[in-house]
Write a structure and sequence with these properties.
By secondary structure, this protein is α/β, with parallel strands linked by helices. About 55% of the residues lie in helices and about 10% in strands. It has 14 helices and 7 strands.
Length: about 375
């Protein structure tokens, strides 16, 4: 994959990793071993493998995992893929084609290949598909247990969108946060204006001073940043803050050389100002996403009688509950006719309030029928 990331499904690699995992877990066997994201093999920088070769590699991996079942180190195995549900993805991993590639050993594969894992949520809905096209239907046809993932955040339209209404801020906080952001910007801009007076005319100093223009840079981009919480967080926390810290370290070193206590105080104030501005920008982003999600939640609740039954009349149905209910209901809809190995939704959360919502409402709650599921999937993506 890169100089620091490796990915392999080679039999010898799988054998070694299964042994290492069992040793770490202190177990003699695991119930299900998942082959993780086979499509990543085609994403290597050296382009060593094409997707057609990936299916042959998966077939050989399955053959080895069958031997691991015989050894008793695993009870069964499955395949996890981020692209399997989306036929339009450039790196699409086709479950049907993988099963075809394994036909020479189909009896062994059908016996021990028991599960498939893939993303599914209100926006990434390709797994449901039309009629028998979606991976949910393909899994059902082959009696594979479906694990769906990412119910509470979607990767769609070039954005990562959290499907929740819990951000630690409220829409009513926007005027206060906007006012605090304005004040933080003003302080930051004033500090940048002051910096030129605190250093000499040394060319090296001038080059260092020229780097402190972040108030203007961030102010010019705030409208764009506020529309994409994930991108804003990545830009601010992974790019802006590290760059500022590096420049401040250089300036602090120069101030130490000069014995300039006033400059050291400026460094501390500027650092504090930058962190205040970035925190306020992220809060504005959260409020923007929150407003959209509240609208979406109310809209979907109004459309579906089952979701309306979950509304206690006070704060409405949390979007996280709606999203998880839709994910679980879709699996139920697919599994209601014919033979099905079943399925479950991997929520992947640790926050106590989320867990209470999901377990208390979704785990024991009502399910949407086929018409409601298809209405939600259609309307959510057309938001």
């Amino acid at each position: 994959m890169s100089d620091r990331v490796a990915h392999s499904l080679a039999p010898e690699y799988l054998e070694r990793e299964i042994g290492a995992s069992l040793a770490r877990l202190g177990l003699e066997t695991v119930d299900v071993f998942m082959l993780n994201n086979p499509e990543r093999l085609a994403a290597g920088r050296d382009k060593k493998y094409g997707m057609s070769q990936v299916y042959d590699i998966v077939a050989k991996a399955c053959l080895h995992l069958g031997k691991e079942v015989q050894r008793g180190r695993i009870q069964a195995y499955g395949i996890c893929s981020h692209s399997a549900a989306n036929p339009a993805a450039p790196d699409h991993f086709s479950l049907s084609r993988a099963l075809q590639a394994s036909e020479p050993m189909s009896a062994e594969v059908s016996k021990n290949l028991v599960a498939v894992e893939y993303p599914f949520n209100m926006f990434e809905k390709e797994a449901y598909g039309h009629e028998e096209e979606g991976i949910m239907h393909i899994a059902k046809e082959h009696s594979l247990f479906s694990f769906t993932q990412r119910p509470l955040y979607a990767i769609a339209n070039g954005q990562v969108r959290p499907l929740t209404t819990r951000f630690g801020v409220e829409v009513e906080d926007e005027p206060r946060i906007s006012d605090e952001l304005t004040k933080s910007f003003e302080e930051m801009a004033q500090l940048e204006a002051d910096i030129g007076e605190k250093l000499s005319s040394d060319p090296n100093d001038n080059a260092l001073i020229a780097k402190f223009v972040w108030a203007q840079v961030l102010a010019e981009n705030i409208a764009q940043l506020s529309q994409n919480l994930f991108a804003a967080r990545h830009y601010l926390e992974r790019q802006v803050v590290p760059a500022v810290e590096a420049d401040l370290a250089a300036l602090q070193g120069r101030a130490n050389e000069l014995g300039d206590e006033e400059m050291l105080e400026w460094v501390a104030r500027y650092r504090q100002s930058v962190h205040a501005v970035t925190a306020h920008i992220l809060d504005i982003c959260k409020i923007s996403t929150l407003r959209s999600n509240l609208t979406l939640s109310k809209f979907l609740t109004a459309l579906t009688p089952t979701l309306r039954s979950l509304d206690d009349g006070t704060s409405g149905v949390p979007l996280s509950v709606t999203a998880a209910t839709v994910a679980a209901s879709t699996l139920d809809v697919v599994g209601r006719t014919g033979q099905s190995a079943g399925g479950c939704v991997l929520v992947g959360m640790r926050r106590e309030d989320y867990v209470k919502e999901i377990v208390g409402t979704v785990g024991m709650g009502p399910r949407l029928d086929k018409e409601e599921v298809e209405t939600v999937l259609l309307c959510a993506s057309a938001e």
